[in-house]
Specification:
single chain; Immunoglobulin-like; 28% strand
Length: 973
C-alpha cells in the first residue's frame, strides 16, 4: 500500500472520529460514486473505509466545511504536509521524537495554518472540478439502499390495457433475486440497506401495471427474504400510460391469396385506392385476433406494396404445416406520420399460404457443403434425388445453387429457380462463396421449377478461405537445421516483425500438408519457440505458422525436410571402466587427466583420443562427423589450462578424423588440480587463540575474510597431531572431512598441545584459506577451582564489629581443599562467575599475608558480591565461594534509642505481668513491627543493637499484651 493510500485512510478516520437532507459540515462526498458519508454514522464510516480499500479514486473525495463549501481531501492533505515539512525544515528538526514534541507544542499554530488552507481551497459544489459530479440532490447516503439505474430497467411504456403501463426490460442487480413494485403518491425516501419490504406486488417484465399520471411507480430489487437491494422512484408521465384513443374505422378492402415466390406466404390483392388521409399501406402479423385498431402509430408495422409476398409461416412451421395453423394479418392505411387512418384484418390458415418444396435431407440427398479446392469456394461431395423420391422429388432432374449475403427465404414449391437457364450443378462443382453467406441448394425439374430445397448458413468449415500469405526466408525465419538429438530438426531464428496480428509461432509436421487458410486454426498444430527440437523424418513437410494468440494463421512457410536438416544418430557413448578411467586431478594446478584410455568393438580397438574444453555444455556430436577444434592427447597427460569447476570436457574417440565415441563431463573440484588455498594470518584474519569460558576450552575471535574471495563461513577441526607436515598445503576448493562450522568466539573443547585447523570456506565447505594453530596451556582454560562447602570450609558471612563490615567466624581447608594455605577475598558490584583452578584473581585481599577468621572485611554494602578464595602461598586459587551480601551479613550504624514518645509501660492484667500501653514508631521509617526480649542485667555497650541487626530469641509484642516478668534480686529491674 502506497504512502498516499495510507495517509488518505488515516485522514478519513481522523476526520470522521473528531469533526464537529443533503451533505452537512463534517460529511464526506465522493463525486464518482455520488455518495454522501455522514460523519455521525458508524455504518457510513465503515462504507467509506471499505470504498477506499476497494481502490476508488481518492482524488474524488471531498469534505464539506462551513457555508456549504467543500475541500478536496487529497489537496488538503498535500498542502498540510507541505506546511508541516516547511515548519520542521525551518526549525531544523529531523529526529522523530523531536518532531512529535514539536507538533504537540505548536498545535495551535498548526490549527491556524490548516484553517488558512481550508479557506484557500474551499469551493462550492457547483465549482468542483468534475464534469461528471451531477447534482448534490442525486447523491445518496453511503449505507443507503442502492438506486437502480437505466442499466437495470427500461423506461415505462404504455401497457396493453387502457390506464396501464409496463416495463419491457429488467436486469437484476447483484444479490437480488426478484422484482417487486408499489404504487405511491409520493417518492419513497432513502432507506438502509437490507430493509425488509412489505405491502408490495411481485412483478415480471411486460406485465401491465394500473397507475395514474403523476403517481410514482416504485420498483424494488429484493432477495428471497424480501430484503431491499436496490430501488427506484419512477414518476409516471402521460406518454407512459395507455390512455383512451380514437378507434380507426375498419374497411372491407382487399383479399388474400397464396404467395408467388416464397413458401408460407400470402399476397393481398385488389387494394384499390388508399382511404382519404392515408399515404401508404402497412401490415402487421399477429398470433391472436386484433379486435380494435386505434388511430395511433402501430408498433412493429411494416410498409407494404401491393402484390408483394407476405411470409406468414417460418421454415420450422412448414415441415409439416399443422392443420391448426392460424395467424392474423392486419392491413392498415397510415398517413405520413404513420398514424392509422383505416384498417382491415384477415385470418390466415394453412390453406391460404403457399406450399414449400421438399426439405432435402443430408446423406439422402446431399453431402456437404465442404470447402472447395480453390480459395473462396464451397462444394457438395455428393448429390442424389433419392431412391424413393416423394411426390415432389420424383420430377427433379437437375441441381442448382446460389448464394446471398442476406438470409434466403424458403422458396415456393414450383417457383422458378434463379440463375442462368441451362446452368446445372454437379457434385464436386465448386461454388464461389464467403464465410457468413447463405446458400440455397435446389432440386429442379426440366422446366427449372423447384421441387426440393435446403438453405445453409456457411461457416468456416464449409468454405475454403484465402490461403495465408507466405513467410519470407531470412526475414521471418531461417532454414531448418539439425536438432540436438537424433531424428530431430529445429529452426534457430524467427522474427514476427511485419506480420500483422501475429503474436506467436506454431508448427505442424507431416506428409503433403495443405497450405493453411488465413485466419483459420490448423488442426494438430503446436506452439513453437526458436531452437526447439522437433522429431521428424526426411521428406516430411515442416509447416511453420505465424499465428495470433488463438492460433489463427496470419502467415506460413512450408519446408520440405532433407537429410541435411535432421540430426543423425550419435556416436557410441564411452563407458567408464571400459573405455576410460577419470577424469582425475592433473599434475599441475588448473589441469585434469585420464588415468587410462582403451578402445572397444564399438569404437575400434586403436582409436585416436581427443578432447575439447568449453564453458557451455557441448552438443552431442553425430556419428562419423568430423572433429574441429579438438586436441589430441595420451593417457596420464595433464590436459587443460587454468581449468575451473563448471567447465565442460568432451572426450572423443576418433578414427581418421571421424568421431566414433564420446563422453561429456562437467568438471568439479574432484577432477581439477587446484592451487594451494591462501594462508590465514594471525592478527589480520583471526586473533590468537584464547581461553574459553568453560573448563578445557579455547576460542578464536576476530574472524575476518578480508582479501579472500568466496568466504561464506568458518570451520574448524582439532587433532592431537599436526594436520600438515612441513611443505604441505591444502588445495584450493578441497573439502576437509568432519570439519565443523564455527562462529566467532565459540568455545572449542581441546586438550593441551592439541592442534586446530582453522578453515575459511564457502557454504559447501570448500576451502578458500586456512591456518593450523598449536595450542598450549595459556590458550586453554583449566577446570574450575573446588567449590567451598558451608560448614566444612566456612560459615556464612556475619556482621562485623564495625559499621559497614562483614566477617567469617570460621574458615578451614584442611579436609578437602588440596594445596590451599591461605584465605583471600574480593568485593565487587557484579558476579565474579566461575573461578579457574590455579588462576590468580586480580586485586584480591589481603595483598600480603592471609585473611584470618573473625577479621572485619570493610567497605561492604547490601547487594555487593563477596568472593571468598582458598589459595596457595602464591595466590593461585584452589577453592572459592561467592556470596551476595544481605542486611543480616553487614553491621549497620548504631540503632536509635527509643524514648517516652515511642512507648509507655503499665501493669499487666494478670499477676506478675506488665504491658505496653503505647507503641508509636515516631521518628522511624519503613514497615515497623515490635519485639521484646527479657534480660537479667543491663545491656553492655558493645552488645547494644545496631541498625538492621537481628536480636536472637526476641518475641513479637502488641499494645496491651501481657508480658510475664520475673523478680531479680527483690526487684523487677
Amino acid at each position: 500500500m502506497n504512502k498516499r493510500f495510507v495517509s488518505i485512510i488515516l485522514l478519513v478516520i481522523l476526520v470522521l472520529g473528531n469533526t464537529i437532507a443533503f451533505a452537512e459540515p463534517g460529511d464526506f462526498i465522493h463525486t464518482g460514486l455520488k455518495k454522501i458519508y455522514k460523519h455521525k454514522s458508524e455504518k457510513d464510516s465503515n462504507e467509506l473505509i471499505q470504498d477506499v480499500l476497494d481502490g476508488v479514486d481518492v482524488n474524488k473525495f471531498y469534505r464539506e466545511v462551513e457555508n456549504g463549501k467543500y475541500v478536496n481531501i487529497t489537496e488538503e492533505e498535500r498542502k498540510q504536509m507541505a506546511e508541516i515539512e516547511k515548519l520542521l525544515r525551518d526549525a531544523g528538526i529531523t529526529n522523530p521524537n523531536e518532531i512529535r514534541n514539536y507538533l504537540i507544542e505548536n498545535k495551535e499554530k498548526l490549527d491556524r495554518k490548516f484553517a488558512d488552507i481550508i479557506g484557500e481551497i474551499a469551493t462550492s459544489f457547483e465549482d468542483i472540478d468534475d464534469e461528471n459530479k451531477g447534482k448534490i440532490q442525486d447523491y445518496k447516503g453511503a449505507s443507503d439502499v442502492f438506486i437502480l439505474t437505466t442499466d437495470n430497467y427500461s423506461s415505462p411504456e404504455p401497457g396493453f390495457k387502457e390506464g396501464s403501463t409496463k416495463i419491457a426490460r429488467l436486469r437484476l442487480p447483484t444479490e437480488a433475486n426478484k422484482w417487486k413494485i408499489q404504487i405511491s403518491n409520493e417518492q419513497v425516501p432513502p432507506m438502509a440497506k437490507d430493509t425488509i419490504l412489505k405491502d408490495s406486488i411481485d412483478y415480471v417484465s411486460g406485465r401491465d401495471i394500473s397507475i395514474e399520471v403523476g403517481q410514482y411507480l416504485v420498483l424494488y430489487a429484493v432477495d428471497n427474504g424480501n430484503k431491499i437491494k436496490a430501488y427506484a422512484n419512477i414518476k409516471i408521465t402521460e406518454n407512459m400510460i395507455n390512455t383512451p384513443k380514437e378507434l380507426a374505422p375498419k374497411i372491407e378492402i382487399g383479399n388474400v391469396s397464396e404467395g408467388e415466390k416464397y413458401a408460407g406466404a400470402v399476397v393481398i390483392n385488389k387494394l384499390g385506392e388508399l382511404p382519404e388521409g392515408a399515404s401508404k399501406w402497412q401490415i402487421l402479423i399477429s398470433p391472436i385476433p386484433v379486435e380494435r385498431v386505434y388511430k395511433v402509430q402501430m408498433s412493429g408495422a411494416m410498409d407494404y406494396r401491393p402484390g408483394e409476398d407476405i411470409i406468414m409461416a417460418a421454415e420450422n412451421e412448414l415441415h409439416p404445416i399443422s392443420n391448426s395453423f392460424k395467424k392474423y394479418l392486419v392491413l392498415v392505411a397510415v398517413d405520413n406520420e404513420g398514424i392509422v387512418q383505416a384498417y382491415n384484418t384477415f385470418e390466415i390458415n394453412k390453406n391460404n399460404i403457399s406450399k414449400a418444396p421438399t426439405l432435402l435431407k443430408e446423406n439422402t440427398h446431399y453431402k456437404g457443403p465442404v470447402p472447395g479446392n480453390n480459395d473462396g469456394t464451397t462444394k457438395f461431395t455428393e448429390l442424389h434425388f433419392g431412391l424413393n423420391p416423394d411426390e415432389n422429388m420424383k420430377d427433379a432432374e437437375t441441381w442448382k445453387a446460389w448464394t446471398s449475403k442476406n438470409p434466403i427465404a424458403v422458396p415456393k414449391l414450383n417457383a422458378g429457380a434463379p440463375g442462368a437457364p441451362g446452368t446445372v450443378l454437379y457434385a464436386l462443382d465448386e461454388i464461389e462463396a464467403s464465410i457468413g453467406n447463405y446458400l440455397l441448394l435446389a432440386a429442379v425439374d426440366e422446366n427449372n421449377k423447384i421441387k426440393g430445397y435446403r438453405i445453409f448458413h456457411l461457416t468456416e468449415t464449409m468454405v475454403k478461405g484465402q490461403t495465408a500469405p507466405q513467410l519470407e526466408e531470412e526475414k521471418h525465419y531461417y532454414k531448418p537445421e539439425k536438432g540436438l538429438t537424433e531424428g530431430t530438426t529445429r529452426i534457430n531464428k524467427l522474427n514476427l516483425g511485419g506480420i500483422e496480428g501475429a503474436t506467436k509461432w506454431m508448427y505442424k509436421i507431416g506428409e503433403s500438408l495443405d497450405d493453411p487458410i488465413f485466419n483459420r486454426v490448423v488442426s494438430g498444430s503446436s506452439d513453437y519457440i526458436a531452437g526447439q527440437n522437433v522429431r521428424t523424418n526426411v521428406d516430411d513437410d515442416f509447416l511453420l505458422l505465424a499465428t495470433d494468440k488463438e492460433g489463427k494463421v496470419k502467415a506460413f512457410a512450408k519446408i520440405k525436410l532433407d537429410e541435411n536438416m535432421i540430426k543423425d544418430p550419435p556416436p557410441a557413448l564411452l563407458r567408464e571402466g571400459m573405455n576410460y578411467i577419470g577424469p582425475v586431478k592433473g599434475e599441475n594446478p588448473g589441469t585434469t587427466k585420464f588415468e587410462a584410455l582403451a578402445g572397444s568393438d564399438s569404437i575400434g580397438h586403436n582409436p585416436k583420443w581427443m578432447y575439447m574444453i568449453s564453458d557451455e555444455e557441448p552438443e552431442i556430436p553425430e556419428l562419423n562427423s568430423t572433429v574441429q577444434g579438438a586436441t589430441e592427447f595420451e593417457p596420464k597427460d595433464s590436459i587443460g589450462e587454468n581449468l575451473l569447476p563448471g567447465k565442460y570436457l568432451i572426450l572423443l574417440a576418433t578414427e581418421n578424423g571421424k568421431i566414433k565415441g564420446y563422453a561429456i563431463f562437467r568438471l568439479n573440484n574432484a577432477n581439477i588440480k587446484m592451487p594451494p588455498a591462501a594462508l590465514l594470518k594471525e592478527g589480520d584474519h583471526y586473533n590468537k587463540a584464547e581461553k574459553g569460558s568453560g573448563a578445557g576450552t579455547t576460542r578464536i575471535t576476530g574472524l575476518k575474510s578480508i582479501g579472500i574471495d568466496g568466504v561464506e563461513q568458518w570451520r574448524i577441526k582439532t587433532n592431537p597431531e599436526p594436520f600438515l607436515k612441513d611443505g604441505e598445503s591444502l588445495e584450493l576448493n578441497s573439502i576437509v572431512p568432519q570439519a565443523n562450522i564455527y562462529n566467532d568466539g565459540n568455545n572449542i573443547r581441546v586438550n593441551t598441545n592439541d592442534w586446530i585447523l582453522l578453515l575459511a570456506t564457502d557454504y559447501s565447505g570448500r576451502v578458500k584459506a586456512y591456518s593450523q594453530i598449536k595450542l598450549n596451556e595459556e590458550n586453554i582454560r583449566k577446570p574450575n577451582a573446588a567449590l567451598l562447602i558451608p560448614g566444612t570450609n566456612y560459615t556464612e558471612p556475619e556482621a562485623g564489629t564495625e559499621e559497614n563490615t562483614t566477617r567469617f567466624r570460621f574458615l578451614d581447608t584442611s579436609t578437602n581443599v588440596i594445596d590451599a594455605t591461605k584465605w583471600m577475598y574480593k568485593v565487587g558490584k557484579t558476579t565474579f562467575g566461575p573461578i579457574e583452578l590455579d588462576s590468580i584473581v586480580e586485586d584480591a585481599l589481603p595483598a600480603v599475608g592471609s585473611y584470618k577468621a573473625g577479621e572485619n572485611i570493610d567497605r561492604v554494602s547490601v547487594g555487593d558480591y563477596l568472593l571468598l578464595l582458598a589459595t596457595d602461598k602464591d595466590g593461585k586459587v584452589k577453592g572459592y565461594r561467592e556470596f551476595i551480601l544481605l542486611e543480616r551479613n553487614i553491621r549497620g550504624g548504631p540503632a536509635r534509642m527509643l524514648n517516652e514518645d515511642n512507648y509507655e509501660f503499665e501493669k499487666g492484667n494478670r499477676p506478675g505481668t506488665t504491658k505496653f500501653s503505647k507503641l508509636v514508631p515516631l521518628g522511624m521509617e519503613g514497615n515497623i513491627r515490635w519485639k521484646y526480649k527479657l534480660i537479667n542485667k543491663k545491656l553492655p555497650e558493645k552488645e547494644k543493637p545496631y541498625l538492621n541487626s537481628i536480636i536472637e530469641d526476641a518475641n513479637f509484642v502488641a499494645v496491651g499484651q501481657d508480658i510475664v516478668v520475673n523478680e531479680i534480686g527483690g526487684d523487677y529491674g
